[in-house]
Design goal:
The chain is α/β, with parallel strands linked by helices. The chain has a single domain, classed as Rossmann fold (3-Layer(aba) Sandwich), CATH 3.40.50. The protein is built from 6 helices and 7 strands; from the N terminus they run H-E-H-E-H-E-H-E-H-E-H-E-E. The mean pLDDT is 90.
């Protein structure tokens, strides 16, 4: 196996992390909408401590267990609230005071690595979740979505996200899309959506 290229361009996950890292500060409240094995949850926890809060969602019990173990090993569990529920239930699961306060919300779609590949995020609940997520962001807050069009079902989900994101009004949302231009439809891609502060010029 060839060694990783240290000068390679950022992956979709790298791109999401780079954007979040410059916009989230200690004390902020953030959401990992797809906890998985806890990598993004831990990334966010390190950004918001001390005094901040991470709310991590996953519909699979195995993901919640894996995330808890990862956070505990890094001594970061106290900054996080793990929620065993679908991300489309965000509005009913988060504390009311989180509405309009969230600095960032991350989605990493697909399946739980190392587990059943037939259990994947679903287009209908994903679209419901990302729409609610925008409503809970603070002005200037950032939503990132890493999607995987290369697996069965992922192509439909990615296309639906593209249609949804392209329909957002430009006077209130900044939208960016990163994907490999010469591997269309196969590689992971990242959407980044920023809520424009009221009164800000386009």
């Amino acid at each position: 196996m060839a060694a990783p290229d240290p000068h390679a361009l950022p992956t979709s996950v790298d791109f999401a992390h780079a954007l979040i890292e410059t916009r989230v500060n200690p004390g902020d409240w953030v959401v990992d909408a797809t906890a998985g094995n806890g990598h993004d949850t831990l990334f966010l926890a390190r950004l918001v401590t001390p005094a901040g809060r991470v709310f991590a969602f996953d519909i699979q019990a195995e993901a919640i267990t894996s995330t808890r173990d990862r956070l505990a090993a890094a001594d970061a569990l106290s900054a996080c609230t793990l929620i065993h529920a679908s991300h489309h239930q965000l509005a009913s699961q988060l504390p009311p005071e989180a509405a309009g306060r969230l600095a960032a919300i991350m989605f990493n779609l697909g399946w739980l690595p190392g587990h059943d590949k037939a259990c994947i995020t679903q287009t209908d609940t994903t679209l419901a979740a990302v729409q609610v997520a925008l409503e809970w962001l603070r002005p200037g807050g950032l939503l990132t979505i890493v999607a995987y069009p290369g697996h069965a079902g992922g192509d439909v989900e990615s296309q639906a996200i593209a249609l949804w994101a392209s329909s957002l009004p430009s006077n209130s949302h900044e939208v960016r899309h990163l994907r490999p231009a010469n591997r269309q439809g196969k590689s992971p891609e990242c959407w980044a959506i920023r809520m424009r502060p009221t009164g800000q010029d386009r």
